[in-house]
Target: Toluene tolerance protein
Amino acid sequence: MRLTRAFISFVTLALMLPGLAAAEPTPPQQLAKQTVQKVLSDMDGRRDELRKNPQELYQLVDRDLVPLIDLPYMSQLVLGRYWREATPEQRDRFQTAFKNMLIRTYGSALLGFNDNVDIEYMPVRAADDAEKVTFNAVIHADNGQDTPITLQLHLVNDQWKVFDGSVGNLSFVTNYRGQFNSQIRRNSLEKLISQMEARYNPK
Model:
């Protein structure tokens, strides 16, 4: 399974998780169902408009998806040892470029969502004082294909944030780390960041 296809499934499920506050008693499954209805409602009847106006699509992704991700920690995991070698400026620049890459590269995935997507939510089993949670679900596609999804979340300032996810055994962090580390070894971290900025940062 290609990473892009897996990330589409990741986006589908991650969009259902905003507002998972530590102090919020609402069960995650209930929150997920409420949230996905709102997101799909926001897009209902706007798909052609969003295709013609990608900036509006990017804004939607930035608003609905990015706040759910622990970008600083995910950026650190993705760069691996190169994060430790990076200067504070390089870390900030990479994090911004990485965020814009996610927004621009996978924003189009939103346009393929089915308003009536069938999602089976698995119970979240964790201690009341747990600081990490594994969220599992199965996306049932119209073609009969079932896609199991796993999201790894941890608490950041009393909010649950996604720091990794997988489709089957395909970890997003592991795959991005492999891609970026290969480019860094061929060139340099600075070269990677500059290329990402030129390609993904708003002009």
